[in-house]
Amino acid sequence: MPRTAPSRRVVSRAHVVHSACRYFVRHGTLDMDAVARDLAISRATLYRVVGSRDRLLADVLWALADRLLARARGRRTRTGVDGVLEITRDFVTALRGSAPFRSFLRAEPDTARRLLTGGRVHRRAVLAQRNILLEAGDGTPLWTAAGADELAYLYVRIVESALYAELLSSRRLGLGLAERAARAVLRQTR
């Protein structure tokens, strides 16, 4: 009987992110060995597909945040500045209420700071916020596309300063202050 070559398991990045999201939700962290086992692939294959733990973790954090953001956007009842703030309030409340996310922030503050405020997650958050700003007027743009780009960056930084205050400065910052600052910025740039 002829010998056949062992089959290779082909796995997509999307499949890996999905598996890693499930792991993160259960454990509040990401164990590359466990994800590889769950996918029935080697660590080498896993790293070939995702590049690094940080890249996969950034994808996981964004995938989970994007779900919360989509839900918040779907619940929006207002338009304009109030609608933008309503989405943010709903998103931040859900994120702060996430036990896996809180566990991750406590266990890996340096990784969280690096990924959430300076990398791929931050860039995706800015792009998502730009889209929220452009949709805020329900057919009548409140901001120009160019203005929305800059405003989205500033807006996300304001939200991050409150949401991740303990990571950035070891102090807790009230969301009320951040919301007042965000409202002032949104109103002044229209």
Describe the protein's architecture and organization.
There is one protein chain. Helices cover 76% and strands 0% of the residues. The protein is an all-alpha fold and 190 residues long. It has one domain. The N and C termini lie far apart (76 Å).
- State the end-to-end CA separation: 76 Å
Could you say which structural class the secondary elements and strand pairing correspond to?
mainly alpha
| Uncertain residue ranges | none
Largest sheet: none
Q: How large is the radius of gyration? A: 19 Å
Pfam families: TetR_C_36
Organism: Streptomyces nitrosporeus
Domain QsdR TetR regulatory C-terminal: 79-187
Protein name: QsdR TetR regulatory C-terminal domain-containing protein
Topology:
Elements: H1 13-27, H2 32-39, H3 43-50, H4 53-75, H5 80-96, H6 99-107, H7 109-118, H8 120-135, H9 145-163, H10 165-169, H11 175-188
Task: Provide the descriptors you would attach to this structure in a database record.
190 residues, mainly alpha, 11 helices, 76% helix, elongated, TetR_C_36, QsdR TetR regulatory C-terminal domain-containing protein, Homeodomain-like_sf
